[in-house]
Amino acid sequence: MPRPTVAQLTYGSCTVIFSTLAMLLLSQTSSGPGIAVIVVAAVALGVLVAMTVPTPKPSRTVVARSAASAAASRPQSVSVTVPVTVPAYAPVQAPVPAVVASAPEPVREPTAP
């Protein structure tokens, strides 16, 4: 028998507690047998709720296809390896547009004497 999950325990416990309180308040019983019947009914309801909580499904394993069916179902691909040499440090200098390079710098003058 699998172990109950945290969600199952939580939902079942909350159901038992709240249904017991609701049935005791609604029936206003104070006799021992009446309380025992309510408690048994609440526990049964809690177990029912805990068992109907959806459990996570186990992960499915992928069945390996045969090589012939795998080759027939996909197009042939060609892989090409190209050697690339990258220098350890290559400074990148972006060209400065002529409009920006020839623009005069703003003059900052004090506003008060």
Would you kindly provide a brief summary of this structure?
This protein has 113 residues and is mostly helical.
Mean pLDDT: 79
Please report which band the strand proportion falls in: under 5%, 5-15%, 15-25%, 25-35%, 35-45% or over 45%.
under 5%
Which radius of gyration do the C-alpha atoms yield?
A: 38 Å
Major sheet details: none
Number of strands: 0
Shape: elongated
Helix percentage range: 40-55%
Low-pLDDT parts are none
What count of helical segments does DSSP give? 4
- What structural class do you assign from the helix and strand content? mainly alpha
Order of helices and strands: HHHH
Q: Please, could you describe this protein's structure?
A:
The structure is a single chain. The chain is built from 4 helices and no strands. The protein is mainly α. Helix 1 runs antiparallel to helix 2. It is elongated.
Task: Offer a few descriptive terms.
113 residues, mainly alpha, 4 helices, 48% helix
Topology diagram in text:
Blueprint: H1 6-27, H2 32-52, H3 67-73, H4 98-101
Helix pairs in contact: 1-2
